[in-house]
Amino acid sequence: MAVIPKEPLEWLNLFRQQMDEIFRYLTTLEGREGVAEKEHAPLVDIYETGNSFVVEVELPGCNREDITLSLCCSTLVIEGNIREETDPGATYICLERPAGRFCRAVEVPPGADLDGVKAGCRNGLLTVAFPWRKNDKPHIREIPIE
Q1: Which is nearest to 10 in space by CA: 36, 46, 60?
Q2: Burial (Cβ within 10 Å: 0-12, 13-18, ≥19) of residue 25
Q3: Partners of 79 in the beta sheet?
Q4: Are residues 79 and 67 in contact, defined by beta-carbon separation less than 8 angstroms?
Q5: Global pTM?
């Protein structure tokens, strides 16, 4: 579920994210028969409090060493790999837990402090918190034409 934009430029970012999702989905439809590695998108909760902007990602069974967090401009990129741990001697009746590579990108709002970000992982829940910047300046300003 996406965050409801509050400013006009944030609507454009949301539209771009949705278009990226569509193209990502369309590219996975082509030639998937012979692909051995599975890819999935973990569930994400995004919310804001009075103190911070928070992203929570469900990663059951994923080790901290298998997760990579990075910031590209104002986009949080969460990548990793959940290893498939099945019993080779068992005959599975139902196998629903996802395994394989994953990648999620979340647009961080302009008022968040990218330098003050903190992340933690506990009980399969990755939490990334960006504190709000103090003395926040407006992100839209007029530029005089000379």
Answers
A1: 46
A2: exposed
A3: 68, 103
A4: yes
A5: 0.65
